[in-house]
Amino acid sequence: MATDPADDRSHDFVEVELEIGPVAHGGHCVARHEGRVIFVRHTLPGERVRARLTDAGETAKFWRADAVEVLEASPDRVESAWPAAGPGGVGGGELAHVSLPAQRVWKAAVLAEQLRRLAKLDLEVPVQAAPGDDERGGLGWRTRIDLVTDAEGRAGMHGFRSHDIHLLDSMPLANEAIAALDLFGRRWSGGARVEAIAPSSGDTPLVLVDGAPFDIGRGRLDGRPNARTAVKEHVQHGEVGYEFRVAGAGFWQVHREAPDLLVAAVLAGLGDVDGAAVLDLYSGAGLFTAPLSDAVGETGEVVSIEGDARAVKDARRNLHQRRNVELHTGDVAQVLTGRVDADSDVVHADVVVLDPPRTGAGRKVVAGITELRPERVVYVACDPAALARDIALFADAGYALADLAAYDLFPMTHHLEAVAVLTR
Q: Model confidence at 339, in pLDDT bands (50, 70, 90)?
């Protein structure tokens, strides 16, 4: 065993032998060493590993480490589906060493723990696989990837919690259309950001370099005034198809199945809203707004609020023929409480749909929602801790959790998506 890390001033590359405990939110497991808590990546509960300390300051409440040698393996351990995301590697594939069924058990355990700790709810919710993921081995699901280049123009990704660039020769989470672009076999400009987007419409993938369109065939930036900077996305709900224009650099669900799956989950959670007033918060380019417009019918109304002006510009194009939709641009909390524009006051909502960023809705937005006294709230969440905190805030205002479903829309990572239904 290595010398006590407390005796080493830098702690760099110090290794310790650890017995691994339960999973924790963030993609690591918990271990203890001489009274200290250590969050260890690239391991599994019940394993015994040799781990390299990566963050071990004397004043830190807990340390961080990467498992670099497995001494006793879990039966859920598999050969890594993405070795480049292993110890000391890039971020974005921290569960690539875990079997797919065990990844979902891992995520369900984290969700249950956050609900117990932050929302005082004892609830076990299975994490469901997205269609096609088991057949693909949890790979090829990303329709958008983000790369960086080194000084010589070679493409890669940043290391976990690092600005260092790790060069790559593939990105196995990317779908087939992106993989066919050969992004790693060419030289780009040095120090650039390279984005690749493969839309569900089947259109040719879009490549952006530092936000500018890139002609992949000619190998140069596309300087034409009419160069494509957006993509067309298709969403299918039952027999109805929806088409969306989305800025290439804008937000859209990354998993190829996520838009269809989440639209179905949200509408199921709402139930019959014919003739209702629906408030759609963090509405983006209109993923939920368009099907909500159909669901409320001619006598209903959908009011959407989005803070990103680019997304609202897309939404206006996507929804301009829908007379029962009203769009607002601005900070959700401020628009919700009427502090942005007196003409934009939201005074009534029968039901509310919200899809906040990873940080969650927060106290001000939850208060603004509950003051409207909607009968039902459908909350789409990408972070279990933020969801649990907000569920607790809703509970304080008299809203109970009526249903909760969880989906594995980020295989090989610790992330999950959940749809919660709250009623009063």
A: low
Active site residue 29: no
pTM above 0.85, yes or no: yes
pLDDT digits (tens, 9 = 90+) for 293-302: 999 999 999 9
Tell me the residue type at 292. L
Catalytic residue among 108, 139, 194, 382: 382
Which whole number is the average pLDDT over 400-414?
A: 98
Alpha-carbon span 351 to 332, nearest angstrom: 16
Residue 10 DSSP class: S
The secondary structure of 146-215 as a DSSP string is EEEE-TT--EEEEBTTS-PEEE-S--TTB-HHHHTT-TTSS---TT-EEEEE--TT-PPPEEEETTEEEE
Q: Count CA atoms closer than 13 A to 106's CA, side-chain side.
A: 35
Residue 19: its H or E element: strand 15-24
Cα–Cα dist 78/388, whole Å: 31
- End-to-end Cα spacing for the chain: 57
Cα distances (Å, whole numbers) of residue 296 to 81, 146, 405, 420, 423? 44, 37, 23, 20, 19
The DSSP bridge pattern shows strands 127-129 and 400-408 to be parallel
Give the whole-angstrom CA distance, residue 402 versus residue 84. 41
Q: What is the mean pLDDT of residues 144-162?
A: 96
Under a CB-based contact definition with an 8 Å cutoff, are residues 282 and 379 in contact? no
- Rg of the chain in Å (alpha carbons): 23
| Predicted pLDDT at 345 | 62
pLDDT digits (tens, 9 = 90+) for 72-107: 999 999 999 999 999 999 999 999 999 999 999 999
Cα–Cα distances (Å) from 417 to 91, 179, 254, 379, 380, in that order, read 19, 25, 11, 10, 7
Q: Report the pLDDT value the prediction gives residue 344, as an integer from 0 to 100.
A: 54
Q: Which of 285, 352, 356, 354 has its CA nearest to residue 319?
A: 285
Rounded CA separation 229/239 (Å): 29
Helix (H) or strand (E) holding 392: helix 384-396
Residue 374 near residue 351 (C-beta atoms within 8 A): yes
Q: Are 42 and 33 in contact (CB under 8 A)?
A: no
Strand (E) or helix (H) holding 114: helix 100-119
